[in-house]
Specification:
single chain; alpha/beta; Rossmann fold; Glutamyl-tRNA Synthetase, domain 3; Glutamyl-tRNA Synthetase, domain 2; 7-stranded mixed sheet; 25 helices; 17% strand; binds adenosine-5'-triphosphate; binds magnesium ion
Length: 754
């Protein structure tokens, strides 16, 4: 299905089509004065993404023209960020500082043309002479200097004969321009400071407005993409290149909206303050929005790329909800992370009628039948459960263990509390319990009804680990400073317990601790002697409900110029209205939708309407919501509701075919694509194209045998115990059938044949 193209993709595509450029060439041009953050990720995805999408090039360029704040450690962090996000940054890193000699030549040329002059007024006079938005400015008398005098002064500025601030080089443009930026902008200033790369060779440094356009030109950049606050600088960009009469092809500047996110500060100055004040442990503190921070916390590059894709590229600034980013990582790990058991605040339980010990088999991916892998859970008389999973005087609706209510130990038995043991102060220190031998998970014949299953670990075999519970760094939506910090953004638990496989087998670096959330082996502090886990994200958004009364949006964010038509259009999310919030909750409660799906529907009336219309034909809310918020939403990005070729009844027909097993969900995507372009009925499409799911073993078995015959190496490894390869075989068989084989059947048959 073709994805709606953002305006930058459209521009690039047109420029290639019209022959303006043979190849697209972008650049990502950070200043190495801090670690890159999620806003930079957006820019990286845009610039490197365009190059990748159109077979072009993208340069990583250090915009290092301010010697006072720059440092090689930031260069390294920027290089690593691009790589970690999965882009090819090439062999070479580019530096504006490499162009200092060339830029100097260009400046001399402008002076010779009478288009630049050395000004020597003090800062205050310069400001006065500049005028205001309503009043034109005036040139200083120094603008009358001769070319010779300007050349002489400029050369001496370069050699270090003057103090900082004594002179500047300015472009001679127009002191009465309505664009204030065009009132003779400064091109060079004196800085008697050594540069981290070129040492003390230079005493003058070029300004952004001069260096940027020319660096782009020198590198052969075609599309110079920057954030909206540079819109007024575009005139200078063009003036410099045009005035110098540089031969084509030349670059053009295009602006997009920078990313701003709730509960987050993104300015490098503010991040530096957090690092230097020790509020956080360093640039890679897992609470920071830096790429290094996300990486250390356990975010996957994929989740960040998905986020960047979802928020899209727009021309109007707006605030993205940080929950959107959290959705992305949760969604990614939900598919990938093995489920294991951990107990953060242990309460001992002695099962008095259990003797000896046993190993219980438990799958790592109980949520995904196609994924193999399991571990052994040691079980014996003494276990630990989570303290909060027992209540002596339970409130109404408490489903876990109480003196009167039995509970299931996940993957194990049902237990019942027989005695509560307390210390002299009345604190519960231990529980005595009995278990039901015939209630074992998977072979339960006890007939006992329980309302929930809780996690546990075996007292003898469990491993002690440190768990770092990270939460949002700020407690308000639009944080301004230190006073808005969340005092509970980090909680360290030293005595948490995990089942042994977590640290012995290490099935993955990222794990789901059942019922808590996703955790990551801290890449810096983890060792076998002292395992440390970082909380990546909880299983659900714990902030959705407890949102405090709103502060106004961050001051720095100008109001969007134009409201986007639907949230899907720009992908940017604002605060929900009361009505949206109540729909959001209803979708989750009434229809069992997950938060992300409910979020999309609650905010979009068109989709919500389609959803409810479709439900009239087929009562499968979760499946219907999925197709509406994914496939239909994508269509609606490009078309209006009237233009859609399909009806709610057709969507229902398609979903029903998946639910009945007639077609696989993968094939459903294909059918949807045709449905939305031709408007034919899904049943007709499936019939015509022979897409019916294959469940017949007589058809599948020969394909399986073929796959087995073609991959003797993997078969050998699988048979030697590498059970993870099972997924490989499933994938091969599905591929061989064009995705038409029924995965459940493939699973079963493969198990038999291997
Ligand atoms: P900050 O204000 O955080 O210091 P900056 O714009 O000064 O950021 P640079 O290192 O100069 O940071 O920016 C490098 C590139 O990243 C620029 O092209 C800039 O437009 C882009 N960029 C920076 N912040 C964001 C953001 N929040 N959203 C999107 N792009 C951004
Ligand atoms: Mg900057």
């Amino acid at each position: 299905m073709s994805k709606a193209k953002d305006f930058l993709h459209q521009i690039v595509e047109e420029d290639l089509k019209s022959g303006k450029y043979k190849e697209v060439h972008t650049r990502f041009p950070p200043e190495p004065n801090g670690f890159p953050h999620i806003g930079h990720a957006k820019s990286i995805v845009i610039n490197f993404g365009l190059a990748r999408d159109y077979n072009g090039k993208c340069n990583l360029r250090m915009d290092d023209t301010d010697p006072t704040k720059e440092d090689p450690k930031y260069v390294k962090a920027l290089q690593e960020a691009v790589e970690w996000l999965g882009f090819d940054r090439g062999e070479k890193t580019y530096y504006t500082s490499d162009y200092f000699p060339k830029l100097y030549e260009y400046a001399v040329e402008l002076i010779k043309m009478g288009k630049a002059y050395v000004d020597s007024v003090d800062e205050e006079t310069m400001r006065e002479l500049r005028g205001t938005v309503t009043e034109p400015g005036r040139r200083s008398e120094y603008a009358k200097r001769s070319v010779e005098e300007n050349l002489d002064l400029f050369e001496r500025m370069k050699k270090g004969e003057f103090a900082d601030g004594e002179h500047v080089l300015r472009a001679k443009i127009d002191m009465s321009s309505p664009n204030m930026k065009m009132r003779d902008p400064i091109l060079y200033r004196i800085r008697n400071v050594a540069h981290y790369r070129v040492g003390d060779e230079w005493h003058i440094y070029p300004m952004y407005d001069f260096a940027h356009c020319l660096s782009d030109y020198i590198e052969g950049i075609t599309h110079s993409i920057c954030t909206l606050e540079f819109e007024n600088n575009r005139d200078i960009y063009d003036w410099v290149i045009d005035t110098l009469g540089l031969p084509p092809p030349r670059p053009y500047q295009h602006e997009f909206a920078r990313l701003a996110m709730t509960y987050t500060v993104m300015s490098k100055r503010k991040l530096l303050e957090l690092v230097e004040s020790g509020v956080v442990s360093g640039w890679d503190d897992p609470r920071l929005p830096t790429i290094a921070g996300y990486k250390r916390r356990g975010y996957t590059p994929e989740s960040i790329l998905t986020f960047c894709e979802q928020i899209g590229v727009a021309k109007a600034n707006s605030m993205v909800d940080v929950a959107q980013l959290e959705f992305c990582i949760r969604d990614d790990l939900n598919k990938k992370a093995p489920r294991v058991m951990a107990v953060l605040e242990p309460l001992k339980v002695t099962i008095e009628n259990y003797e000896g010990s046993e190993l219980l088999e438990a799958p790592y991916y109980p949520h995904d039948v196609a994924k193999e892998g399991s571990r052994k859970l040691p079980f014996s008389k003494e276990i630990y459960i989570e303290r909060s999973d027992f209540e002596e005087n339970p409130p109404k609706g408490y489903y876990r263990l109480t003196p009167k209510q039995p509970v299931r130990l996940k993957h194990a038995y049902i237990i019942e509390c027989t005695e509560v043991i307390k210390d002299s102060e009345g604190n519960i220190v231990e529980l005595k319990a009995k278990y039901y031998p015939n209630s074992k998970s998977g072979e339960d014949t006890s007939g006992i009804k329980v309302k929930s299953a809780i996690q546990w670990v075996d007292a003898k075999e469990a491993k002690r680990v440190e768990v770092r519970l990270y939460d949002r760094l700020y407690k308000v939506e639009a944080p301004e400073g230190m006073e808005d910090l969340n005092p509970d953004s980090l909680k360290v638990i030293k005595g948490a317990l995990v089942e042994p496989a977590v640290v012995t087998e290490k099935p993955d670096k990222r794990l789901q601790f059942e019922r808590y959330g996703y955790f990551y082996m801290d890449p810096v502090d983890y060792s076998d002697e002292h395992p440390v886990f970082n909380k990546i994200v909880g299983l659900k958004d714990s902030w959705a409900k407890k949102k405090a009364p709103q502060k106004p949006q961050a001051k720095a964010q100008p109001k969007p110029k134009k409201e986007p038509k639907t949230p899907q259009e720009s992908g940017e999310f604002a605060q929900m209205s009361q009505e949206e919030q109540s729909r959001f909750e209803e979708y989750q409660k009434e229809y069992g939708l997950n938060a992300q799906t409910a979020n999309i529907l609650a905010r979009d009336q068109q989709l919500a309407k389609l959803f409810s219309e479709t439900l009239k034909h087929l009562d499968k809310p979760v499946a219907v919501a999925n197709i509406v918020t994914n496939d239909v939403a994508r269509e609606l990005k490009e078309k209006s509701l009237e233009e859609l070729k399909f009806t709610p009844a057709a969507i229902a027909e398609l979903v029903a075919m998946v639910e009945e097993g007639t077609i696989s969900s993968k094939i459903a995507k294909e059918v949807f694509e045709e449905l939305s372009s031709s408007g034919k009925s899904p049943k007709a499409i499936v019939q015509e194209r022979g897409l019916v799911q294959i469940s017949d073993p007589a058809v599948i078995v020969p394909i399986i045998d073929d796959v087995i015959a073609k991959n003797p190496e993997n078969v050998k490894k699988y048979k030697e115990g590498n059970s993870r390869l099972f997924g490989f075989f499933v994938g091969q068989v599905l591929k061989a059938t064009g995705g038409k084989a029924n995965p459940q059947v493939v699973n079963k048959l493969l198990q038999e044949r291997l």
